[in-house]
Amino acid sequence: MATAVQRRPATTQKLDHILACATRVFYDKGYEGASIRDIAQRSRVSLAGLYYYVESKEELLYLIQKHAFTTLIARLEEQLERAGTSPEARLRLFIRTHLEYFLQNREAMKVLSHEAESLRPPFAGEVAELKRAYYRRARNLVEDLKQERGLKGLNTRVAVLSLFGMMNWIYTWHNPGRDPNADALAEHIAGLFLDGVGAATNSTHRHKASRNGRPRAG
Amino acid sequence: MATAVQRRPATTQKLDHILACATRVFYDKGYEGASIRDIAQRSRVSLAGLYYYVESKEELLYLIQKHAFTTLIARLEEQLERAGTSPEARLRLFIRTHLEYFLQNREAMKVLSHEAESLRPPFAGEVAELKRAYYRRARNLVEDLKQERGLKGLNTRVAVLSLFGMMNWIYTWHNPGRDPNADALAEHIAGLFLDGVGAATNSTHRHKASRNGRPRAG
DNA sequence: GTAGTATTCGAACGAACGTTCGATAACTAA
DNA sequence: TTAGTTATCGAACGTTCGTTCGAATACTAC
To answer: Is the dihedral of CA A37, A39, A40, A42 positive or negative?
Structure first.
């Protein structure tokens, strides 16, 4: 057991650089399809040099996933603190936060979504725990909404995971030049989740009026 | 250029067996993570023997994806022929057909969804064409619904791809012992897509009454 | 049986893989 | 300047990869 290596700031910075390059490579080729040599080439570090910063290829994936999840969760907590108490408003904020982070960190989030099964113990467990925490957060928001509106027939688990499906599938099709940006996408998906396609009945901006409640509620 | 090999029925059958085994291996380990040796072992064919049936590992993936997509599309066309003309009923049937096939062919559908980027030309193009055809089908169904209901604010592309997101994400979480079966899942997701979480306001079986129209429409 | 085709596979190929080693260079603290 | 740590990398290790080859076996038609 060696004592923790003392690292200069530049070293931490270089690790971040390597992680950014690895993210891009995993994004392009997938975890299994990518080679350490690809990452060395892109980061302009020698093959052996990478192993000064990281113990294995798997640790690279682990660090990328852990960082992405941790940052996303932190941003969510920060946003929800400033939010109102209406379940709908809070859920809309959750969706917007998720999508903004998702599109701002497209590469990392694809690696997080697509390589969910690529880590093995002990790395897998730690990321899985973060995922559970994030899921629990979303589930509670939907539970609150369900309770407020008396939605007794709603399967919360299916609803939440369907919402995640809509949001996480985006990396397979979203084209920044063609498709709506994060905010507009969030309104769209929140509208679908809350009111279905009918949410778009009257006008494109109907969602603004529905921000504080269900416009069709009696 | 050799003439097409004449194959006995048993040979075609054995190819199917190999494809089934390959599907399982790709399902478990991913395309890049799986080795030809894994597939040989599972199918009880020697490593070299596999190459009598297939020219490359990539062709295995191609055949799996092509078969899954073709069968799915055929089943959809068959179902839609018997369907009524109501846009909602047709869309509900689409969702149910997709999910039934998805859960019945869980392994192949994960391979189809998860390995969408693993094929390279010329294989990639042919599968992409099937995907486009399938997407177009879904898009038309939603367009019909949109027109019937005057949903001018609905971004059809986003709506359809969100629907695909809900459905295709299922392979990441669905647990046959715990979660609803295909039909129940289809009702749930159709409810979400058509009316949002509000679709579950009154009772679990409210969807039955809404089969022929929107229960909340004025 | 015999000829010819269809099927099977042990053994090996070269390439690429993740990782390690030992030496060297760069930096820091005295 | 020196001693000690931090950082870097060329070269190689052993393994696994997808694929091929040539010989052997099973089958079919005559």
So the answer is: positive
Confidence at residue B144, expressed as pLDDT on a 0 to 100 scale: 96
pLDDT of residue A213: 38
**Position with higher pLDDT, A164 vs A210:** A164
Q: pTM for the complete prediction?
A: 0.90
pLDDT of residue B11: 80
Strand C close to B4 by CB, under 7 A? no
Residue of A nearest to B142 (CA): A197
Mean residue pLDDT across chain B? 89
Separation between Cα atoms, residue A180 and residue A160, nearest integer Å = 23
In order of A62, A182, A200, B104, B115, the CA distances from B159 in angstroms are 33, 15, 11, 25, 23
Is the preceding omega at residue A122 within 30 degrees of 0, hence cis? yes
Say if residue B180 is preceded by a cis peptide, omega within 30 of 0: no
With vertex at residue B7, the alpha carbon angle to CA B5 and CA B9, rounded to the nearest 5 degrees, is 165
Q: Where are the alpha helices (DSSP H) in chain A?
A: 9-29, 36-43, 47-53, 57-82, 87-104, 106-114, 123-149, 156-168, 182-195, 206-209
Specify burial of residue A13 (Cβ count, 10 A radius: 0-12, 13-18, 19+): exposed
The minimal CB distance from A196 to the residues B117, B179, B196 is found for: B196
Distance between CA atoms of residues A117 and B126, nearest Å? 28
* Bases of strand D lying below 7 A from some protein CB: 5-12, 16-22, 27-28
Closest CA to B63 of B6, B1, B130: B130
Cα distance between residue B64 and residue A162, in whole Å: 26
Secondary structure class of B127 (helix, strand, coil): helix
